[in-house]
Amino acid sequence: MSKNPRFYFSLRSPYSWMAYRDLLDRYPDVAEAVEWVPFFEPDELSTRMLTERGEEFPYSAMSRAKHFYILQDVGRLTKARGLPLTWPVDRDPVWEVPHLGYLVARRAGLGREYVDAVYRTRWELGRDICDPEVIADVATSLGLDPVAVSTAASDRALREEGVEILLRICKDGVFGVPFFVHRFSRFWGMDRLDEFATHLRSKLAPAGALPASATSVGLGRSSEESHAGGCG
Asked: Which string of b and e fits 86-120 if b means at least 16 CB within 10 Å?
């Protein structure tokens, strides 16, 4: 099992977006210490490639009731944070488009900047981040190759890298986002960020420097037991 602390984020999820903002605003040291790993629902091709590797993606579609709850909940949370919010409309989304595009940006040393720009594009401007033209615009604004970034989902090598990430998601027991992992400890939801930060600081700081007060989520706990600001 990897010893590196990990932050599983999704460019689709409003809770992941808010956790990202809270992470940078309140815990910049933690943001620097964690590995940023994209979480995305696989399309038909990625699902087939994952199945060929003997795994099944640990995600199920939310109910209509939960969907309406999230609309209300996110409205409250963004208002409390003073964040602008424009709900996007997803039409036949292929989540590999923005998330594999992140891999290209990360290789260029602009992964964090890409995440920020895509979140802003989706949640503040309400644009469709599964549209390659939208991702090309984001890439151009960052000085990245717009073709390489926007067509990442068509690149076989990047598809295979994406499947490796999906395998990590399965191995780490990630069932929703945001999700934080450090060794055997799991923390699901933006409401667990404080606990994760306390936990991680206590482990990375000199012995006795910080109290360890986090409560982790066990591997066997179902995603239905609490909401915790977690979303798929």
From this structure: eebeeeebbbbbbbbbbbbbeebebbbbbbbbbbe
Q: Where are the alpha helices (DSSP H) in 94-131?
A: 96-107, 111-119
Predicted model pTM: 0.87
| Phi, psi for 153 (deg, rounded to 5) | -65, -15
Q: If you ran DSSP here, which 8-state letter would residue 142 be given?
A: T
Residue 63 is a catalytic residue: no
Average pLDDT, 10 consecutive residues per value, the chain (232 residues)? 87 98 97 98 97 90 90 97 95 96 98 98 98 98 98 98 97 96 96 97 67 36 40 54
Phi, psi of 186, rounded to the nearest 5 degrees: -125, 145
Measured CA to CA, the distance from residue 167 to residue 57 in angstroms comes to 8
Extract the tokens encoding 226: 């609490």
C-beta separation of 46 from 166 below 8 A: yes
Beta strands at 179-182 and 185-188: parallel, antiparallel or unpaired = antiparallel
Q: Which structural domains are found in the chain, ordered by start?
A: 6-204 (3.40.30.10)
Of 10, 13, 16, 185, which residue is the catalytic one? 13
In angstroms and rounded to an integer, the radius of gyration of the C-alpha atoms of the chain is 17
Tokens representing 104 are: 């290209």
Q: 152 vs 88, 130, 155, CA distance in Å?
A: 22, 12, 5
